[in-house]
Amino acid sequence: MTLAATRSIDVVRRRESSVLGRLRWPERIAAGVILLLALVVILAPIITPYPVEQQNFEDGALLPPGADGHLLGTDQLARDLLSRVIIGSQASFGIAFFSVILGLAVGGTLGMIAGYRGGWADTVLMRLVDVVLSFPTLVLALVIAASLGPSFHSTVIAISLVMVPGFARLTRTLVMQERNREYVQAMQISGASSFRIARLHLLPNIAGPILAQAAISFGHAIPGEAALSFLGLGVQLPQPSWGNMIAEGYGYIAISPWGILIPACLIAVTVGAISIITDGWRRISQEDE
Predict the structure, then answer these.
(1) Which end of the chain is more exposed for a tag (fewer CB within 10 A), N or C?
(2) What domains does the chain contain, in order, with CATH numbers?
(3) Are 258 and 77 in contact (CB under 8 A)?
(4) Which pLDDT value is given to residue 10?
């Protein structure tokens, strides 16, 4: 076998062993969709064709997609729907991102303490988690958002708090599986602090499932934001989000359904893509076990 052929085989093997190389075509397409949406969120102020609040009455209100230079049409106030969808993606993705970060930080910390310490700490913390789980998720988010008042920040807090039990339970389970392993016991005997053991040894070993849960939670947070904003408890106008765009277009659905269909389809595509990627991630993890 020639040297060139050997190198080609090595490249193929490295490609197949990488996560990207092991993704199936639907999973690669889903990853591309999420990457594209992420770029849109980052570049939103640059790529919007019109100012988000500009009213183009000379062109007309409730225009269908493609009419008079408006790729996705206009809304009831003659504002360009493409511009509003692009800027709205920042609010929807921003709320989902910060909700996952906050929920992971709080839930992961509670689960880490409960799983590692055990005893009364485990009992007390898990009973608190059970209390939160006893409420329907959407109802609890509505109550929290209504109590704090409608805003970007209150939406983040409301969604993140309903995520805490999921992260806490998962982290607790994973830590309880790891705490009795030999490497943890060796660190304890050597006198390492609990914080050091958790930060340097436990977290790296349980990061995979937790990140998968974070991806799933991100997918749940986007329709959660849409629900709160649709009910007037989320992002407030004039700042657009996919949720309040649906609320604005609801009254004109018979005349121009695009104001609802476009953000609703984007929510569905985003959640579907995240679900496909998560399934691929889980499949690859199972193959590695």
Answers:
(1) C
(2) 73-288 (1.10.3720.10)
(3) no
(4) 47
Contact predicate 99/156, CB 8 Å: yes
Burial class (CB in 10 A: 0-12, 13-18, 19+), 212: middle
- To the nearest 10 degrees (0 to 180), the angle between helices 81-117 and 119-133 is 150
* Main-chain phi, psi angles of 216, to 5 degrees: -65, -45
Residue pair 78/168 in contact by the 8 Å Cβ criterion: no
Short-list 158, 194, 169, CA closest to 179: 194
- Segment 123-148 mean pLDDT: 92
The pair of structure tokens assigned to 277 is 């990627």
Which is nearest to 133 in space by CA: 170, 179, 100?
Answer: 170
Per-residue model confidence (pLDDT) at position 7: 44
What value, to the nearest 5°, has the Cα angle with vertex 195 and ends 190 and 199? 100
- pLDDT for residue 56: 86
Asked if 233 and 146 count as a contact pair (C-beta separation under 8 A), the reply is yes
Q: Which residues have C-beta within 8 Å of that of residue 208, sequence separation ≥ 6?
A: 285
- Measured in whole angstroms, the distance separating CA 24 from the mean position of its chain's CA atoms is 22
Q: How far apart are CA 209 and CA 99, in angstroms?
A: 18
> pTM higher than 0.85 for the full model?
yes
Nearest CA to 159 among 175, 137, 174, 178?
Answer: 137
DSSP category for residue 135: S
Is the pLDDT confidence value at 12 over 50? no
The strand pairing partners of 80, in sequence order, are: 74
Residue 147 has which token pair?
A: 């109590």
C-alpha to C-alpha distance for 274 and 269, rounded to whole angstroms: 9
High-pLDDT (> 90) share of the chain, % = 65
CA dist., res. 260 & res. 224, Å (int): 16
Mean pLDDT computed over 41-52: 94
d(CA 112, CA 210): 12
